[in-house]
Amino acid sequence: MTRFKAILFDCDGVLLDTEPLGCESLSRALTAAGVLMDRYEAARIFSGNSAEASMAWMAARGLDAKPVFDEADRILFEMFDQHIPHIDGIEAVLRDFDLPMAVCSNSLIRRLDASLMRTPLAARFGEHVYSAEMVRLGKPAPDLALFACARLGIQPHEAIFIDDNPHGVTCAKQAGCLAVGFIGPSEHRADHAEVLARAGADHVIHGMGAFHALLSTLTHTLAA
Predict the structure, then answer these.
(1) In which domain, by residue range, is 161 found?
(2) How far apart are CA 12 and CA 163, in angstroms?
(3) Can you give the pLDDT at residue 181?
(4) Cα dist. 51→29, 48, 97 in Å?
(5) Hey, how many other C-beta atoms are within 10 angstroms of the C-beta on 167?
(6) Domain assignment of residue 96, yes or no
(7) For 190-197, which contacts have Cβ atoms below 8 Å and span 24 or more sequence positions?
(8) How many CB atoms within 10 Å of residue 37?
(9) Which residue from 122, 224, 165, 135 is spatially nearest to 10, judged by alpha carbons?
(10) Where are the beta strands (DSSP E) in 114-167?
C-alpha cells in the first residue's frame, strides 16, 4: 500500500512546454522598456519566480513593472492564441495514475486561464488549479503546496510534487512533500539537474517517460 495519495504539478515547464514562450515575451517587453535581454537571460532571472519577486527585480532597476507585465502578457497571449504546447508524455501521466491531482503554479490566475484552462489537460484537475495569488506567499515558500494538500484533504507527506525550478522544489520540501525535480525538453541550462538536486529534490528526472516510470515505482496504483 503506497503512502502517496496525490500528485501536485507545476504548470509551465511541467504540464505545458510554455517556458520558452513566457521568457521570450518577457524579454521582448523588457527590451522595449529599455532593459536589453534575450529569452535565455529572462529564463535565468525569472523562471519559477513569483510575480512579487519579478516585480521587485524590475523595481530595483527603476522600471514600473505593471506596464512591462501588461506588454509581456499581450505578446504571450497572442502566442497562446496560435498554440499552447504540452510537455511530451504528460497525457499518459494524467491518464494512467488514478490519484487526485492538483496544479500549484506561481503564475497569475489570468495566465493560467489563458493557457492551461484552454487545454484538454485542465479537465483532469477539476477545481484543483491553484495560483500563488491564492496564498500569502508564492514559491519558494511552502504556502502553495500546503494549500493544495489541505484542499485535497491529504497530509503533505502523502503528496508527490513535481516542479522544474528550484523554487518549486524548495516549496515542496518545506511543506513536507516528496519533491521531484523535472528536466523538460526545452531546458537549456546545462547544470539544471545539479541546481534541482542542491535545492533538495528527492528525485531528478528527465522527461515525462521517466516521471511515469517513477510514479509506477512510488505508487503501484496504475489504473487498469
Answers:
(1) 6-17+86-219
(2) 9
(3) 98
(4) 15, 9, 32
(5) 21
(6) yes
(7) 195/166, 196/164, 196/165, 196/166, 196/169
(8) 18
(9) 165
(10) 129-131, 159-163
Place of cell 514562450: 21
Q: Are residues 68 and 98 in the same domain?
A: no
Closest CA to 35 of 13, 75, 8, 67: 67
Q: What is the pLDDT of residue 224?
A: 40
Who has greater pLDDT, 108 or 196?
196
Asked if omega into 140 is within 30° of 0 (cis), the reply is: yes
pLDDT higher at 62 or 143: 143
- CA-closest candidate to residue 109, choices 91, 141, 75, 135: 135
Whole-angstrom distance, CA of residue 201 vs CA of residue 19:
20
Q: Does pLDDT of 222 surpass 50?
A: no
One-letter amino acid identity for 105? S
Compute the distance between CA of residue 172 and CA of residue 160 in angstroms, rounded to an integer. Answer: 8
Q: What confidence score (pLDDT) does residue 20 get? A: 87
Helix and strand totals (H; E) in the chain: 10, 6
pLDDT at 223: 45
CA distance 214 to 212: 5
Cβ-contact 134, 102 below 8 angstroms: no
| In the predicted structure, residue 1 carries a pLDDT above the cut 80 | no
Number of domains the chain contains:
2
The residue type of 112 is L
78 and 96 belong to one structural domain? no
